[in-house]
Amino acid sequence: MASAISRPKSANTVEGTSLKASWLTVTSSLIIFTSIAISILVQQTKPSTQSAPLLTTIVSYDPLIIHVEDFLTSSEVQHLLDLATYQPSTVIDDETGRHDRLASGRRSSTAMLPRGDAVVQSVITRSARFQGFVSEDQFEQIQATRYLEGGEYVPHYDTLSARRPLDQEGERLTTIFAFLDDSCGSHCGTQFPRIAIDWDSEDKRWCEIVDCQARTLTFRPRAGSAVFWKNLRDNGSLHEDTLHAGLPVQKGSKIGLNIWMREKLL
């Protein structure tokens, strides 16, 4: 389905695809585009009980990528940081389908957050509402990932079908990556290496969200903010431009949440 919002005529071309950037801030209660209904009025629960709209910016329509300014409150960020207990991260081996802790492309540690925690459940509820009141049962257990100095995750896809046969819950339709710790600085964010934009020709306010010195789309890590994207095209195939990487941490640390929504109920 075509996007409900027209983009400017000026565009930057990326490997045969067209990426059109504009500074669009969404403040209405609900907008619908690219087959997803997105609600931006979110109820905050414990430890913060205030309700507040989410400030969102459309970064790309194809693939659909959205930046969310305050996806998590500061008290939620601290609670989730305190909650996490980390183990070495794994990746799925292409040949065996098993989780491999010795993978050279991913240097990080991971914590699976308990769904019974009130704040974790609030994040799941918020993620479901953000995507048009989808079922909360479509979400995997939320994963916190920590990168210390030297840590990184080389370019990869979040989809499962390229690495193993799909189970009955289906593919990962969408990803929300939310930042909890941004002490690594400004050049250690999340990068989409297949999406190139000449930021010199764009509004300078973009540099508050992205690394304008990078040649490809790179989100600055900012605690509480999040990036949403669709992993699949409308026909169900992988969108190749969702290839992304966790850039190397040169100092400090970076911690984020992986929030994945599946095609079917878990």
TrEMBL record:
GO MF assignments: iron ion binding; L-ascorbic acid binding; procollagen-proline 4-dioxygenase activity
Transmembrane segment boundaries: 21-42
Key words, A-Z: Dioxygenase, Iron, Membrane, Metal-binding, Oxidoreductase, Transmembrane, Transmembrane helix
One Gene Ontology CC term in the entry: endoplasmic reticulum
Recorded superkingdom: Eukaryota
Domain Fe2OG dioxygenase residues, every copy: 138-263
Gene3D superfamilies xref list: q2cbj1_9rhob like domain (2.60.120.620)
Cofactor(s) required for function per UniProt: L-ascorbate
Annotated InterPro entries: Oxoglu/Fe-dep_dioxygenase_dom, P4HA-like, Pro_4_hyd_alph, Pro_4_hyd_alph_FE2OG_OXY
Protein name: 2OG-Fe(II)oxygenase
